[in-house]
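User: Sequence recovery, please. Input:
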């Protein structure tokens, strides 16, 4: 891990925010924090469009912003914003974004939206977060929000990745909830006792291997977690992964009788794509 920190500079781009720290987790993953526009209000779990100025058009010489959807990984009460990002080698944005340093500017359109919010779920007893890869980002926000624990008696977060190193951002974040004095005071020990972390890997050996879908279908995940069954009366879920994961988990949840909700029509579970493609 390699962390850099700097004092914020004065923004100059339209919708510019200043990067305050960058952490590289693997050669494919990094996270960064930046200043938060004073006017930006959002609900934990929502996403915004962020990016950089694109290369100048060879004909006109003009540059346009190159923007992508990003879940806000920080909670709604945080003074700064945090993002957790993939590095796509030939990706138009992330081939460049991965080189940002403290003091650099990014563009952030302050229009948060999304379905992974408490408002889109009916009250329940148990809340599941199902994430693969960078799909952990919205849950990094929700896991730091006291509302998550106030609304539910148990919170289970599953994170499936290929290699162990890809768990590290999430693992450290969850550990910090219990070790960071400020987080402990904000969330409370009693609330944190409600949280169960269930990481799995699909390629590199780790204590729990396999796709979460396979582990759910075989009943292994429920046995490990001491859950008898997933039921519409008690269970609520938020899902954020690849198209494949989202489709498969949806089918599993529907099989248990859960129905998909939305901001305007809260129900038992909600889904959002972690990326397109
Ligand atoms: C609602 C929503 C929220 C998102 N939140 C995040 C986030 O919090 N963090 C994040 O890193 N990305 C997130 N993304 C994806 C993001 O918008 C970009 O696709 C990503 O930053 C890569 O941009 P790019 O221009 O480099 O490549 P793109 O041209 O956008 O993507 C190129 C290819 O890379 C792959 N890819 C893109 N993003 C990912 C990813 N996150 N994980 C694995 N493979 C990927 C896909 O196969 C895609 O076709 C989100 C997407 C959506 C729709």
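Assistant: Recovered sequence (277 residues):
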């Amino acid at each position: 891990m390699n962390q850099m920190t700097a004092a914020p500079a004065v923004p100059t781009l339209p919708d510019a925010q200043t990067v305050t720290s960058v952490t590289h987790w693997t050669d494919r993953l990094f996270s960064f924090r930046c200043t938060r526009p004073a006017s930006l209000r959002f609900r934990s779990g929502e996403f915004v469009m962020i990016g950089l100025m694109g290369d100048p058009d060879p004909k006109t010489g003009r540059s346009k912003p190159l923007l992508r959807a990003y879940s806000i990984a920080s909670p709604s009460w945080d003074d700064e914003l945090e993002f957790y990002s993939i590095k796509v080698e030939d990706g138009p944005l992330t081939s460049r974004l991965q080189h940002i340093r403290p003091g650099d500017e990014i563009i952030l359109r302050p229009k948060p939206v999304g379905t992974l919010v408490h408002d889109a779920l009916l009250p329940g007893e148990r809340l599941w977060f199902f994430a693969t890869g960078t799909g952990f980002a919205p849950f990094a926000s929700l896991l730091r929000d006291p509302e998550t624990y106030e609304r539910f008696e148990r919170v289970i977060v599953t994170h499936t990745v290929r290699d162990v190193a890809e768990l590290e951002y999430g693992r450290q974040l969850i550990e910090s909830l219990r070790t960071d004095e400020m987080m402990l005071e904000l969330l409370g020990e009693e609330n944190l006792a409600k949280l169960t972390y269930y990481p799995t890997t699909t390629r590199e050996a780790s204590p729990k291997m396999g796709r979460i879908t396979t582990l759910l279908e075989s009943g292994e995940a429920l046995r490990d977690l001491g859950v008898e069954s997933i039921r519409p009366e008690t269970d609520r879920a938020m899902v954020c992964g690849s198209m494949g994961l989202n489709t498969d988990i949806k089918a599993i949840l529907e099989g248990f009788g859960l129905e998909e909700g939305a901001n305007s029509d809260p129900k038992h579970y909600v889904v959002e794509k972690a990326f397109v493609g």
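Residues 118-273 form a domain with the Rossmann fold fold (CATH 3.40.50.80).
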